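Please go through the sequence line and C-alpha cell line underneath and see whether the fold suits the sequence. See right below:
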Amino acid sequence: MGRSERDAVARGARLHEAARSLVADHDRAVEAVRAALKPIHDAAVEQALAAVPVARLQDVTSGRLRLGNVEKSGLRTVREVLEAGPYRLRQIPGVGQRTADQIIAAARRLSEAAGETVAVHIDVDRPEPQTTALVMALHVLAEAGPDARRAVETAGALSKRLGPLLAEAKPVAGRLRMLLAGRAGRTRALEAVDGIRAVTDEAARAGTAESLAQASVDLLRGPSTDVAAWADFELRSAEYYGLLAEVSRRAPDTAAAEGFLPDDIAERVRGQHLDDSRCRVSLRGYQAFGARFALAQRRVILGDEMGLGKTIQAIAALTHLSAEGHSHFMVVCPASVLVNWTREIEARSALCVTPLHGPGRQDAFADWKGRGGVAVTTFDALRGFPGPGREEVGMLVVDEAHWVKNPKALRSQAVIRWAGQCERVLFMTGTPMENRVAEFRSLVRMLDSGVAERLGGPDRPAGSVGFRKAVAPVYLRRNQADVLTELPSLQHTDEWEELSASDEAAYREAVRAGNFMAMRRAAYARPEKSAKLVRLGEIVQEAAENGLKVVVFSNFGAVLGVVKAALDAGVRGGGPVLGPLSGRVPPARRQLLVDEFAAVSGPAVLLAQIQAAGVGLNIQAASVVIICEPQVKPTIEHQAVARAHRMGQVRSVRVHRLLAAGGVDERMVKMLENKARLFDAYARRSAVAEATPDAVDVSDAEMARRIVEEEQARLGMSDGQPAEVQ
C-alpha cells in the first residue's frame, strides 16, 4: 500500500487516541467527584437513619417483625440496628437467626432508600476537609465548562466511529499484511481508509483536534487553591449542584422534571434535538427538556416556579434556532428586567443583543433589522414597531407574560399582532395558572385557539389533573421541590435596572452634593417613578403567587419605609408586611418580629435593616431575599443572607440584589469584585472575623471618596478638586 493510505490511518489513529485520552481524563474527573462525595453522602445517610425509629422496620416487612425486645435492648433507631449487626441481635431474647436476618434486611432496604433520597448540602460557611475535597473536584468540571462537555461527547462519538475503521484498516500497514488479508480483507481495508479520511477531514474542518486538546488541558488543570474553589462555588453554587446531581446520577423524578406531560407529548419533546453549541452554560436536565419543549411544540407557555432558570431555557432555545440558521429574535419584557435580559444573553450565549429602549429605539430597531441577533424591548415600546414579516423572526419570547392577560390592553394587542406573525412563540411566567382559568385562556388563545376553546366550553376540564392534561400541548410547569434534588441551595441574581428619568434626576442631585449615602438611596427618593421599586414589587408579587415568604434588606431605614408604603399600597395577596426591623428595635422585639413572620401561614414580607438583622437572627422561613442596594462590605451581605440560608432551611433560597446600571451601584460592584476578594472572604475567616465585619474589609470611606469623584467626573460636575464626601 502507498504512503497516502498509511498517512490517512496514522491521522485517524492520532485523532482516535486524542478522543480516548479526553474521555479518560473526563472519567477521572468524574470519579474524583464520586470519590469525594461518597464519605459525605454516607455520613448524611447515617444521620438520616439515626432519626428513623426501629418501628419503621415494620413498614418494610408488612408488620411481620416483632421488635419489642429489640427496642428494650436499647436499639432504638435503624442506624443502631445496622451498627449492632446480626450477632448482637441474636443475643436479644426472642430474636433468632431468621428474625435477625429479616431485621437486618429490612434495615438495609431503608438504608438504600435513604441513599437514593438524601440530599448532600455543601455549607459554604463551614468548609471542612471532606466538603473542600468535593468542591475542589467539582471545580475541575465547572471550570472546564460546557465546551469540555461537548468535546467529551464528540470524543465519544469519534471513538465509536474510528475504532472499528482502524481495526479494519490494519492490513494497510504493510504489503505482507495486505497479501495475507486476502481479496475481501483488502477491499474492507481500503473502504475503511476512505472512511477514516472522511472522519478526519470532517474533524479538521470543525477544528475537533484543537477542541479535544483544549478540553483535556481544562480537565487536567485543577484549582490553584482550595480558597479559589470555594470562592468560585459561592459565585456559581447552582452550577456546582447541577454537576453534582449529574455526576451522582441523582436525577429528579422524570415525570416531575417533564411537568407530568402526557406520554405522547413527552416522547415528542425528548426526541427534539437541542444544539447548545452557541450556549455558554451547561443546562440542567429539566432545563434542556424545557428548551426542547419550546422547540418541539413551537407556541408554548413555560410556567416554571421562580428560581428554575426560565431565562436560560429561553436562551437555549434561541441558540438552537440560531445554529439552525435563524437570524432574528425578539424578547419582550417589562422595563424592569430589560437590562437583565441584555446582560444574560451576552453572558450566556454567543448571540448578539440589541436593546430597543429609550429615545433611540427606532434607530436601534433599524439596526437590528439589518444585523440580526436578539432584540430586547418593553411591552410599551413594542407598540411602536411594525409587525414582522412571516418567518422573519425565529422566535418571539414574552417574559412575565401574565402582563398581557387582558386582550383589550394596548400592550396585549401589540403582543397578539407579533405572535400572529411568528411561527414560534415562547411565553414565560412564574405565576401559577391552574386557578386562573380565564386569564390563562386569554394567553393560550394567542398561541393555540383550539386549546383555548377546550378550556372554556361546557366540557372544560375539572380538577388539576384534567387541567394539566388539557393544556399539555402548550403549557409546561415544574416546581423547585420536584426538580432540585440538592435542596437547600442558594441562588444569587443581580437585578440590573435602568434608572427612570425621575431616579436619574435624584441621583444627579446627590452626586452634585457629593453625598455618597444619598447617591446609594437615590433610586428610592421618588417612589412613584422608582425603577427599583417596580422590580421589587414584581419579585414580591411572584413570590406571593407561589406561597413564598420574602425578607427585604436595606442599609437605610428611609428606604425600608418607602418599600413598606409601596408594598402596603400595591402588592395584592402578598400577605402581611412586617417591620421594619431596625437598630432602634430592642433585640427581644426583633426576635418576636421574626417569630411572627415565621408563624404566618402563607406568604409574608419582613423588612429589615441589614446591619440590625444580619447577625444573631435566624430567618429560615424566608425563601426569597431582596437586597435593595449593594453594601460597602461583602461580609455584610454575606451575613444577612446567611440568616435565611442556614441549617434548618428546607427550601432553596433565592437572593435578588437590586442594582442600577451606570452609576454608584455599578462602581461599587466592580470595586468590591476587584478587592482582594478571596483573602477577605476566606483566608481571614475566623470566629472573630465572622462576628466583626470590620475586621476583614478595607475602608469604605476611601471607596466612597473615589466613587463620588468618578461619578462627578462622568456627569461633568468635577472641578478637578478632591471631592468632599458627605
Summary: Residues 295 and 372 are 20 Å apart (CA to CA).
